[in-house]
Amino acid sequence: MTQPMPVDRISLTTLRLFVAVVEEGSLSKAAERESIATSAASRRLNDLESGLDVVLFTRNSRGMQLTLAGESLLQHARRMLLAASALSSELLEYRRGIRGHIRMLANLSAIVAYLPEALEAFFLEHPDLRIELEERPTPGVVRGIQEGWAEIGVCSGDSELGDLAVLPFRRDRLVMLMRPDHPLAGQGPIAFADTLPYDQVALHAESSIFTRSQIAARDAGRSLRRRIHVPGFDAICRTVQAGLGIGLVPEPVFELFGRSMKLHFEPLTDAWAERELKLVYRNGRTLSTAAQQLLDHLRPKD
Predict the structure, then answer these.
(1) Could you say which DSSP state residue 96 is in?
(2) Quick one: which of 302, 238, 291 has its CA closest to 131?
(3) Which residues fall within 8 angstroms of residue 271, CB to CB, at 6 or more apart?
(4) How far apart are CA 39 and CA 12, in angstroms?
(5) What's the pLDDT score for residue 297?
(6) Helices 115-125 and 289-298 sit at what angle, rounded to 10 degrees?
(7) What's the confidence (pLDDT) of residue 93?
(8) How far apart are CA 195 and CA 268, in angstroms?
């Protein structure tokens, strides 16, 4: 029996063609998109299927439909092509004088409240480095670091961080944002349970802040009167300003957005409102020189 072709023998050109066929739904359209003759495209796909010893498409009157094996290959092909594109971009940056490229993940609190100034100072010291920063909720940060999508992450310290290496980053506290005419305004510090009779504007459902507020409501034997979910802290401030409810935010967010909107906040007496953001990276794995420089810059100074 002929042994299947090793996966590392598959060319990127063939993977691009395969993805194009899926997205175009037609071999001829895919061949046109990839600037290759239809006959050559057909031969490449046939060689791919025979080499892997699987059927990737079913051919019928509606076009080419993926099999289960094809769906599996599609997921990996897109990741491989994305990685190849990122590699090409990074090498181009090296040719242009960029000396290091760092991928970083962070939750919304860190990106809004702390990282802009920290990264500004870092770039003043290292103008020849490049950082690709992506916002993800804390579970996404942890997963992305564990899977190697990025080298450094910043996330909530009260979440499950697995076997990642952890360093402190910043401490802050959550406060309840409201309009000055709200019944709770001027009554603080208040317990989170005291806010539960009122409509609340909540951050997106995957955020650690929303998760923590749900847990606190459950512990108080109440339900959260969530009126609306919004994607960011600026949206919380705007909807609170419009009178749609009160909102849980880090105190620096009030300074950045709420004060200029003439909003008010009350501190919370709950211990969980005092938070610590953590720097995370893969334990036992050596960071790149550029990433190590960034980690040294971000970690607390003794």
Answers:
(1) T
(2) 291
(3) none
(4) 19
(5) 93
(6) 130
(7) 60
(8) 10
